[in-house]
């Protein structure tokens, strides 16, 4: 696999960024959409049916972002807990809006059967700037560990702490986009003073299992549900998706907790990260959102059936 010779426009190749490079990176980030108009307004519309709470806030002066979670109204400690997270990477749009679509269109189907806890937009600063990192050039989805320097990650872990050991399901909604290869992975390599090695972007939906606690039947239930909405990513010529070996159709695996990934923050027996491909000519934004919602429904259906 050849490295790319064109250097990233910030920093010196082979040298990790310091404060000056991070400041230059930050100066290039511009607001491109509104968290208040596109996310908070939708959450407000759900207040009549769900409990809504502010579980923290980001003060990235002059910008201030309340962090919002939605819960089942009639929380019952005797019912299993389902955690749904989206927007850990703010640019991954269908993660945010797929979670909100599930709440609006499907959540009431599970009333009295599960307790829902949903954090639909974990990284609102990055949502507005259509970026992977937070204000401090930190990837929240490598930062879910004790003493995290990512405020987004630390706040979510505090929210989830009371159900960390009792949750049945955690589904973390993501996207793999063309900008992963054109911007975000090159930026990561530059930030850390490493060479960038292209991996290629998979065309289609896939999921990430936990290599330390694999649940292959659970993951396949999601694949079967989502393929009714959008296409499943095939393995490449090396038998991989995005640089990782394919362990089953549409499934790769990472050590979720070891890598500090959001999907590893609970002890839930059923955990997964979804990955939608929004840049495919074969899909629309509506399909991407629907695919995320379908994955959530399939996860809950499987968990309820197999936890009896």
Q: Explain this structure to me?
A:
- There is one protein chain.
- With 308 residues, the chain is an alpha/beta fold.
- The protein has a single domain, classed as 3-Layer(aba) Sandwich (Aminopeptidase).
- Helices cover 31% and strands 19% of the residues.
- The protein has 8 helices and 10 strands.
- The chain has an 8-stranded mixed β-sheet with strand order 1-2-4-3-5-10-6-9, sandwiched between helices. Strands 7-8 form a two-stranded antiparallel ribbon.
- Helix 3 crosses helix 8.
- The chain is globular.
- The chain starts with 18 loop residues before the first helix and ends with a helix.
- The N terminus is likely disordered.
- Its cofactor is Zn(2+).
- Keywords: Hydrolase, Metal-binding, Zinc.
- Belongs to the peptidase M14 family.
Query: How many helix segments?
Result: 8
Please state how the strands of the largest beta sheet are arranged side by side.
1-2-4-3-5-10-6-9
Mean pLDDT: 96
Alpha carbon gyration radius: 19 Å
Low-confidence runs:
1-5
Cofactor: Zn(2+)
Keywords: Hydrolase, Metal-binding, Zinc
GO biological process, one term: proteolysis
Family: Belongs to the peptidase M14 family.
Features:
single chain; 308 residues; alpha/beta; Aminopeptidase; eight-stranded mixed β-sheet; two-stranded antiparallel sheet; 8 helices; 10 strands; disordered N terminus
Please write out the topology.
Blueprint: H1 19-27, H2 35-45, E1 51-60, E2 63-71, E3 81-86, H3 93-105, E4 115-119, H4 124-129, H5 151-160, E5 167-175, H6 178-192, E6 206-210, H7 216-226, E7 240-241, E8 244-245, E9 251-254, E10 270-276, H8 285-306
Parallel strand pairs: 3-4, 3-5, 5-10, 6-9
Antiparallel strand pairs: 1-2, 2-4, 6-10, 7-8
